[in-house]
Amino acid sequence: MNKKKSGQIALAFFPATSMQQVKLRPVLLLRQLPYGFDDWLICIVSSKTQNYIKGLDNLINQGDNDFLQSGLKVASVIRAARLAVVSGDILLGAIGQISAQRLSRIRQNIANVSSD
């Protein structure tokens, strides 16, 4: 994947928490890690909006200003509790981008939880 940047929605194979199954799914690139490798902090994006955790996750709906540019096909939940660090090599391609404001809210939600 060329020109990765924070806020992009990309496709990647992401394991289930049981590590028994891997699924191709959209992921949000939160931040490239600062130590000189092509490693990225990511979180998954799921169409199962009923799994939304208020105060942590972020819903993106078809009526939202940045929905079309996200590249998502249906309303989705950005699962900030499902974090991983991955090599940029496993990111298969960007499908879109969320707004800087949404990215900032997601990062703040993660910071708030980690400070408890």
Report on this structure.
The mean pLDDT is 91. A six-stranded antiparallel sheet has the order 4-5-3-2-1-6. The radius of gyration is 13 Å and the shape is globular. The protein is built from two helices and six strands. The protein has one domain (8-114): SH3 type barrels. The chain is α+β, with helices and mostly antiparallel strands and 116 residues long. The longest helix is centred in the C-terminal third of the chain and has 15 residues, at 100-114.
Compile the SSE list and pairings.
Layout lengths: L7 E8 L6 E11 L6 E8 L11 E3 L6 H4 L5 E12 L5 E5 L2 H15 L2
Antiparallel strand pairs: 1-2, 1-6, 2-3, 3-5, 4-5
The arrangement of helices and strands along the chain is EEEEHEEH
Tell me the CATH architecture.
Answer: Roll
Helix percent reads 10-25%
Q: Just give the CATH class.
A: Mainly Beta
Summing up helix and strand content along with how strands pair, one would put the structural category as alpha+beta
C-alpha termini separation: 35 Å
Unreliable spans are none
Entry keywords:
alpha+beta, six-stranded antiparallel β-sheet, 16% helix, single chain, SH3 type barrels, 116 residues
Summarize the structure.
Helices cover 16% and strands 41% of the residues.
